[in-house]
Specification:
about 400 residues, alpha/beta, 17-stranded mixed β-sheet, 17 strands, about 40% strand, globular, SUF_FeS_clus_asmbl_SufBD_core
Length: about 400
């Protein structure tokens, strides 16, 4: 069934005030751009983001520039196409979500075309659907709307691969039908001057499974929101993230699991490494367990490994719980330098200090990389981690005991 923008708006308007749960991290949504003020940086959801480096994407920069080109493959039975006109209009808000930031409202209101990936019911894609987005000009700003639709009991993997130079504001909407198995891998491997401001919103059907992997290496500034809601009981979301920030980079990831149905699950694991002067990473996790969401299970975890001096890693997990009738809920966050015990163990067996450091970093990321589930992507990530490490010679790094909290 196609969900039009008008029907989504009508459904939101009919939602009773008792069903509207206030969250300080997620303002009320609206399709009207005028309802969203230009952020100043004092707002809770923008206080970590260096707005001056966004090239106006958070405000009123033009979204009609041509600064990217996209290519893709389409396995048998799967439609991948750029749609316009009424078909594109009907896809605005197809995830059942109303924009809660100015940039997302502007994308849905102003971007005329939509890149649609449509996996029909009962279809199992024989290979990953890979969409390569190559940036061509970081001085031009643009917007993008992508819809990934997985029919009932379908199974597919979609890879969004971003490279080159660009300044892009993007909204990716994902609809996972009942009983479907969907995986979305978004790789931000931009050039050093790129700016990428994006919001991924998924709606998970009854007994469906959804895996989202957010992987960020390149870019001057990358900020991604990865949000999920549930259409019925039994839905499960696995939110994975891997990022590696170099000198001067700002990489920011935010997740929001909104448990809107009973007996649903969410599990988030994000890991990051930082090296170089003024490398800055931000991870903000939030899980909202509504009154109706009895019997749910959720856990969110963020780990950061600081490789050199001059870095900053902000890690903020949150839980908002409206019912005590749950199976389990928790979070963990830690930021640390190398563990002296690990390095000493490896060096005592004849391994050099630099090689020991390299092995520790690979071990830190390895388990997470293996969970991506796409062998070609996993090998690429291992190679990229190796390349990132080669940018700095890791010497004379003092040890600092892990700090953070586990609740």
């Amino acid at each position: 069934m196609t969900v039009t923008t008008d029907s989504v708006r009508s459904a939101l308007e009919q939602t009773s005030e008792l069903d509207r749960v206030e969250s300080h991290l997620h303002p009320a949504g609206s399709f009207d751009v005028a309802d969203h003020e230009v952020p100043t940086g004092r707002e809770e959801i923008w206080r970590f983001t260096p707005l001056k480096r966004l090239k106006g994407l958070h405000a009123d920069a033009p979204l009609d520039g041509r600064n990217t080109k996209a290519t893709w493959n389409a396995p048998d039975g799967v439609r991948v196409d750029v749609v316009t006109g009424d078909e594109a209009t009907d896809l605005r808000g197809v995830s059942g979500w109303a924009p809660n930031t100015r940039f997302t409202a502007r994308v849905l209101a102003e971007v005329r075309a939509t890149l649609l990936v449509d996996v029909p019911a009962d279809v199992e894609a024989g290979e990953p659907i890979v969409i390569d987005v190559e940036g061509t000009d970081a001085d031009v700003t643009s917007g993008a709307h992508v819809v990934l639709r997985f029919g009932r009991h379908s199974k597919a993997v979609v890879v969004l691969n971003h490279t080159g130079s660009a300044a892009v504001s993007a909204v990716v909407e994902v609809v996972v039908g009942d009983g479907a198995e969907a995986s979305v891998v978004s790789i931000q491997d931009w050039a050093d001057d790129a700016v990428h401001l994006s919001h991924h919103q998924a709606r998970i059907g009854r007994d469906a499974t959804y895996k989202h992997a957010a992987i960020s290496f390149g870019g001057d500034l990358v900020r991604m929101d990865a949000n999920v809601t549930y259409d019925g009981p039994g839905g499960s979301a696995e939110l994975l993230g891997l990022y590696f920030a170099d000198a001067g980079q700002h990489i920011e990831h935010r997740i929001f699991a909104d448990h809107t149905a009973p007996r649903t699950k969410s599990h988030a694991v994000y890991k990051g490494a930082l090296q170089g002067e003024k490398a800055h990473t931000v991870w903000v996790g939030n899980v909202l367990i509504r009154k109706v969401a009895e019997g749910i299970e959720t856990y969110e975890e963020n780990r950061n490994l600081v490789l050199t001096d001059g870095c900053q890693a902000d890690s903020i997990p949150n839980l908002e719980i409206e019912t005590g009738e749950i199976e389990g809920a928790g979070h963990a966050s830690a930021t640390a330098r190398f563990d002296d015990n690990q390095l000493f163990y490896l060096q005592s067996r004849g391994i050099s200090e630099q090689e020991a450091q390299r092995l520790v970093v690979h071990g830190f990321f390895n388990d997470l990389i293996r969970q991506v589930g796409v062998p070609s992507i996993e090998q690429r990530l291992l190679t990229t981690v190796e390349a990132e490490l080669a940018k700095n010679v890791l010497k004379d790094i003092g040890s600092l005991a892990a700090f953070g909290s586990d609740d």
